[in-house]
Amino acid sequence: MTSATSAPRKPLLPLDEAVAQLLAAVAPLTATEQVSTFDADGRVLACAVVSSLQVPAFDNSAMDGYALRAEDVVLGSRELPVAQRIAAGVVGDALQAGTAARIFTGAPLPSGADAVVMQEDCTPLNDGRYGAHGCIRVNTTPLPGQHIRRAGEDVQHGQCVLPAGTRLGPAELGLVASIGMAQLDVVRKPRVALFSTGDELVMPGAVAPQDMPLGAIYNSNRFFLRALLRRMGCEVADLGIVPDTLSATKAALQGAAAQNDVILTSGGVSVGEEDHVKPAVQSLGTLDLWQIGIKPGKPFAHGRIGAAHFIGLPGNPVSSYVTFWLLVRPFLLRLQGVQEVAPKSIAVRADFDWPKVDKRREFLRVRRNAHGGLDLFRSQSSGVLTSVVWADGLVDVPPGQPIVYGQTVQYIPFSELQ
Ligand code: AMP
Ligand code: MG
Fold it and tell me: How far is the CA of 203 from the centre of ligand 2 (A)?
């Protein structure tokens, strides 16, 4: 433990500087692989996707209704014979002046037509005066171009729809499918070895809750870190809990470094702690121990063992969770070639007071309420995992600044961090 009278503390490193240093250390992965578009959710594009067609490929109807020439209705003849029927996937004949075509959503617009009137604005008059399709009375004055989806209004031929470095989600997958891409070139998955340190840790299932010895706790970090890594598109080598001896820690690190791009650990990076991770990393490679000016968080380590990065997160579960989002997420995204890695915050009203100022930048666990404001979780302790479950985001509080009820604050939704 450091005391108030001991040697001067290392100044706290601002979060933005820590992120910048971390990103500066990343050499993005260059290996790529081809995957089915079906399997590309969460992956990062290795090259730009350029469209070899326009979308829509042809002018088509945006409604179920009738294609016609707008001027035929303006000229007073509001009754038009229906000369043809065009379903989606069917190509109709050229529209003759003074006629309408029954048309359905997505069907190609017949040449000569310049408007679609929705069927709700027409009355069918099947009085036998006309052929099989009858006749309609148009009960509206159509404007030229209405209810027509123009060819190329979504995507143009030769357009780059997604640049290299795009992280693919459901919307992106739909877009690339719409231009006919069944396979995509993506960056290979980062390989990340994960292990927990701490002799107090017990795996759920190994000991029943009623039999847990005093001082033992369940390993919770392993579960959320593994899930977070997977969501960040990583292949996880889960090494479990590494015994708290120097030799076991060194062996685990050495083995992991040879086969992985990153080694992520939790616990044992606090100042003054008797721990084997620090000396083990230092003996095998290099290590920077940072005291980052954030709360929760603070202790964080980055180093190298051979070609692998070492990242040490704090052991406190909420600190581990929050530092993953704020530091590890940008790191892993950049490793996969993503440029924009900073979480976006939005201005929202705080429906709470936060009078306790801290010299560190704080990330409070909050939740949006039905009145457009933010509520604060009852405990902001770094060990309280119920806070991150209850919360739907973080409020980014600048160092030394209290929050007064009703004030606008910067809010980072967890959804922004997926
Ligand atoms: P440390 O960073 O190792 O000093 O740990 C700080 C606190 O986090 C201690 O209370 C640890 O018991 C706890 N902790 C460390 N690792 C884990 C883990 N994997 N799961 C749950 N709690 C942990
Ligand atoms: Mg520990």
Answer: 15
- Per CATH, is 15-29+189-335 categorized as 1.20.1290.10? no
The whole-number pLDDT of residue 3 equals: 44
Boundaries of every domain in the chain: 15-29+189-335, 33-53+157-187, 60-149, 346-417
pLDDT classification of 272: cutoffs 50, 70, 90: low
pLDDT band at 2 (very low <50, low <70, confident <90, very high): very low
Q: Which ligand 1 atom is nearest residue 269's CA?
A: 2
Q: Is the CB of 316 under 6 A from ligand 1?
A: yes
Answer for the pair 288, 18: CB distance below 8 angstroms, yes or no: no
Q: Is domain 346-417 in CATH 1.10.520.10, yes or no?
A: no
By the CB criterion, residues less than 5 angstroms from ion ligand 2 are 198, 267-268, 315
pTM (whole model) above 0.85: yes
Give the Å distances, CA to CA, from 79 to 46, 99, 116, 282, 333: 56, 9, 15, 87, 61
Establish whether residue 266 lines the binding site of ligand 1, counting it when its CB lies within 6 angstroms of any ligand atom: yes
* Residue 326, C-beta contacts closer than 8 angstroms, at least 6 positions apart: 15, 19, 294, 297, 343, 363
Say if domain 60-149 classifies as CATH 1.10.3470.10: no
Residue nearest ligand 1's atom 10 by CA: 316
User: Residues 28-54: pLDDT tens digits?
Assistant: 999 999 999 999 999 999 999 999 999
